[in-house]
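Give me structure tokens for this 387-residue protein.
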Amino acid sequence: MHRVATIAAIVDQHAEDAAFLWLRRRREIDGPILDETDIGRIDQRLEANLEGLMAAGKAGWEAAQARFADYAEPGELFVLGVLALRWGDADLTEVAINAAASLGEPGLSSLSAAIARTPRENLRPLVAKWLDTSDARLRCLGLSALWHHRVDPGPPLQDLVSHSDATVRRRAVRLAGGLRRRDLLPAVLAGLDGETAKERLAAAFAACLLGEARTAHPVIDKIVLTETDQAEAAIEIRLLTTPPKAAKAWLQTRLGQPLLRVAVTASIGLFGDPSVMPWLIEKMREPELVYAAGLALRDLFEVDFNDTDLFTTDPADLGKAFESLNDSPLPVADRVAAWWDEGRGGRGHTPFHSMRRLRLDALRAAIAATDTPLADWRRTRRFPAWL
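Here you go.
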């Protein structure tokens, strides 16, 4: 890291914008609204701000530190982590890791994202050290590096999937599934009885990737019933790993359960069956289900609904009963009904594959071909920010 002549206000702006852009990217990276081109534009702007901070040298680091001191949030920590790792400075990396400790799990996730944007050669001297330490946080970071860069560590993964720390086990089991390490299947299946719902769901996902969906399904079903914060993710895995006819019957039995109505409605589009449209339009008229119904609509059709008037960002447009809703954009039932009745249903539009669609397609491909590693669906097309 060096000291160069800089304009403080510009450097500070780089630090602020980088944190903001990463937060926006994190919110949208697996979502149904933006595609790889849209995320690529965010990436281009994010990278420009990170490069501005790196070019500023010491002033860039000090600006990022000052920003984190004022706003100890995941976005600001991400910026610290990227700078430290790309510079390859051990002392600064330790500062970022210590800062992450104050944020708990969100801090670990922020550093994981910083690792994802760091070249392999910068990480190589760190990963072996992180995996060999007794510090669970550092082992999690090492596993994050292996996951993001799809690297198989070989025999050491055997110890990590049986580690005493639940967070380490969860990340190691996920990696074992993604890399198709069938030699670790016994440890993956042991994770189905893990301490936390997150660990059990990660083990169930890995088991499905390793061809053991039937064994994982009872665990997934229990999570759906008892862990509302994990229900949507669990339902998604269940439907992707169940034959279509049986999956529809399984989902139908959950529709009548009040605590699952939102998650089930959001998942109905995974079947790609447009015959559900009349039912879905009616759910758009219910404040409790309108947002979920919009998510299902986006799954049903390869349409860029951002280029239509079928959604609104102002809940008040839908009537008084919807005014207090915080989620957006929301589908406008009458407009969707007219669009559907006119027979468009996605025809006449350029195919649009959201980041969510890319993720689902990657999961479907991995489940269908159990001998290939899970693909990285988060690759994006880079465009200059002004295009």
